[in-house]
Amino acid sequence: MSSSNPLRDPADRRLPRIAGPSGLVIFGVTGDLSRKKLMPAVYDLANRGLLPPGFSLVGFARREWANEDFAQEVHDAVKEHARTPFREEVWQQLIQGMRFVQGTFDDDDAFERLRDTIGELDKAQGTGGNFAFYLSVPPSAFPVVIQQLKKHGLADQTSGSWRRAVIEKPFGHDLKSAEELNATVEEVFAPDQVFRIDHYLGKETVQNILALRFANQMFEPIWNRSYVDHVQITMAEDIGIGGRAGYYDGIGAARDVIQNHLLQLMALTAMEEPSSFDADALAAEKTKVLGAVKLPRDLGADTVRGQYAEGWQGGEKAVGYLQEEGIDPKSKTDTYAAIKVEVDNRRWAGVPFYLRTGKRLGRRVTEIAVVFQRAPHSPFDHTATEELGQNAIVIRVQPDEGITVRFGSKVPGTSMEIRDVSMDFAYGESFTESSPEAYERLILDVLLGDSNLFPRTEEVELSWKILDPIEEYWDKHGKPAQYPSGTWGPVEADEMLERDGRSWRRP
Ligand code: BG6
User: Fold this and answer.
1) CB 229 less than 6 A from any atom of ligand 1
2) Is the CB of 471 under 6 A from ligand 1?
3) What angle do CA 62, 68, 71 make, to 5 degrees?
4) Which atom of ligand 1 is nearest to the CA of 260?
5) Where is this region: Disordered (predicted)?
6) Measured between alpha carbons, how far is 420 from 374 in angstroms, rounded to an integer?
7) DSSP 122-168
8) What is the extent of the structural domain holding 487?
9) What pLDDT digit, counting tens, does each position of 261-318 carry?
């Protein structure tokens, strides 16, 4: 259907969704996330024609910048990090709505200036009072920013306009702090005004989990304890902590990514079919999975944490975590974490879900591997199947996005020798469109008020409930095992699976 077709259905999800009159205010605009992800995403959306003509971008920070300096920063960030080519005409239009407000978070005058700026943009750019406030700030700054928005009337939705709060992780560092944080936010913003970012949910390959499972008939019948042996979810990074010592130390790998990204991937992999794809129905099913998670009885045996030591990465010598700048040399922070959990319901009872993540591992790769039981009976000699592994469906989240199905096949020319082979779907080969960055999708959804891809309060709190006992156990017992940079983590993690008669995949 073309867009001029009178029969065009506005709910048709194939059609481009374009944001209505609106603007985005970024707190923490001088930070890394803003420069590498948020500003480029705004430009990419504009370049794809998905932002309204008068779209406005307001930066709020301490720096002594004029509007022009801010625009220059955005320009440089876009040139360096945007996904789509730079087009002068798009830039010229975008720059019309760029403003900078200088101030600290406790500065009442600055928030008054922010209010005036928004008022001015409503007139000059036709933003209609619709603004999203993106808090790309440390959690310690959440309460003051939220309170300032309230105090200066910036959270009020008047005469048909909307105001939304976008909150970056971490949402606390345990259940208690998350509850406090949620209470602070929800004292000012109604639940449907709050968008919590888990950028993994904005990735195309992650959204495709739902398409794979629920748009097809061939996978779902075997997606359960009768056929699945176990599930492995891996998020491996080859980078270290870079310049993020201040954020990372004391937080660690499990809080940084298992609490959010990995548990969300697990929820999407394990959940029942939602009655529809609206936000409530999806959240209800994910919540059920997170609520059904059972931790292992022996946390000492079935969880492992590690810390990278010096080693070699990509042909270069890499320093250990304790030698990184800004890290306490006695730090017990985990840069690797592996945990085993079960989802205690009829579909999954007895099927372990192994979740692991780490920095400075052998390769950057995120995947979900659903590993199947062996065939219950084999008419072949044992020599014929010696090299046959377990069947698996592997969702390759990144890089090399796609899906692999692994199964056994007869080696040609032998009387009967069966070996593992792969059937691959690769995005690059099947689609000409390239995938948008997660932040493009998520910022657009915020402007459209579409909350499908944003975790709810309950999901966040349940995820902390899962992690808290593990962190407490780690706190009381020993310290992380060291692993050389560039390897696949501590040997203890291999032993953890060996005890179950299994092994980690080497993606
Ligand atoms: C972030 C974590 O949420 O995800 C980082 O805080 C991590 O530590 C990053 O590096 C990885 O994101 P991606 O999209 O590159 O896999």
Assistant:
1) no
2) no
3) 80
4) 3
5) 478-507
6) 13
7) HHHH--TT-EEEEE-S-GGGHHHHHHHHHHTTTT---TT--EEEEEP
8) 201-436+456-498
9) 999 999 999 999 999 999 999 999 999 999 999 999 999 999 999 999 999 988 899 9
pLDDT digit string (tens) for 85-127? 999 999 999 999 999 999 999 999 999 999 999 999 999 999 9
Q: Strand pairing of 481-484 and 392-398?
A: unpaired
The whole model's pTM is what?
0.95
CATH number at residue 376: 3.30.360.10
Q: Ligand 1 atom 9: the closest Cα is on which residue?
A: 257
Tell me which residue has its CA closest to atom 3 in ligand 1: 257
Q: Element (H or E) spanning 366, and its range?
A: strand 365-372
Q: According to the annotation, is 199 in a ligand binding site?
A: yes
Residues 323 and 391 in one domain: yes
pLDDT at 181 over 80: yes
Q: Identify which of 235, 256, 324 to mutate to test ligand 1's pocket (most ligand atoms within 8 A of the CB).
A: 256
62 is in an annotated binding site: yes
Kindly report the average pLDDT of the chain as a whole number.
95
Residue 377 is labelled as binding a ligand: no
